[in-house]
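Work Package 3 (structural annotation) set out to generate three-dimensional models for the target panel prioritized at the project kickoff. During this period the team completed the workflow that converts sequence records into discrete structure tokens, so that structures can be stored uniformly alongside our sequence database. As a representative example, we reproduce one entry of 336 residues exactly as it appears in the project archive.
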Amino acid sequence: MKKTLIIAEAGVNHNGSLEQALKLVRIAAEAKADIVKFQTFKASLLTTTSTPTADYQKENLGKSNQSADTQYEMLKKLELSYDDHHVLIQECKKLGIGFLSTAFDFESLDFLQSLNLKLWKIPSGEITNLPYLEKIGQTKAPVIVSTGMCEFSEVQQAVNVLIKNGTPKDSLTVLHCTTDYPAKMEDVNLLAMLTLGKDLGLAYGYSDHTLGIAIPIAAVSLGATVIEKHFTLDRNLPGPDHAASLEPNELKHMIRSIREIEKALGSSTKSPSTSELKNRAIARKSIVAATSIKAGEIFSKENITTRRPGTGISPMKWYEVLGTQAKKNYVAGDLI
């Protein structure tokens, strides 16, 4: 199967620190992720100063005594400067991992476009932002779009806008997603991922916010071509997303498991593997003499049976052998 694109979502788990962001790049590269992704925004352009924080944000921030009454107050502390982006890109190049960031406002879109990134990632919150979708579609670059909080019709509308404005359909991927941090297992509805792919006729994947690594691995087994997963240096750090993120060793484990699943999925053809063929003669059975049989005697249910190895006549020819004459003498256990 085609290799799954694995996006290690650093997001805002750098807490506004370039040093911490660089550590996240190194962790993602060491874990062998394909891409490390950040978030590019100006808090003043992303939200009004009075927009309240989401319940999950209040809860996660409250655990670390870093409460914020408004999203603006929270997000202002999590911005990366444009210069920070250049430093991160250089680190990614040095370590051989792809750099990606999601833009949350038009100025940030323009900035990311100036970096000549080859891929756009649209977050769930922007899927109903028509002018935003039009602007990304007009770049004609490949797009991955998350669909958290969406009705199917909303996803369909967004896809149509992107394609109408220039995004090639064959370079568009939709990610099923549950926008809660952490997302409950009973809210995942993973089979909806297959509906998105089938009914839209698009490549599909999964952006995961559950705890652990089971659901991303399951998604790959169901045909996901892209997996996105948040990770952090430490789940106990202050910030809105740390609690729903993987720690470094867990990220490594997830990626290693996905690569193993890719090998195991193989093709849709049912045939023995090369490693199985050498065991076939040992594990299968042949028709053998159950008792001593003299030449000319008729083979019957009383004097023949089946035993390993499978190097003689297959038991599938049982009725072809029954009733025929022995051409030589046999002792019990001899292959017929």
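Residues 274-321 form one domain.
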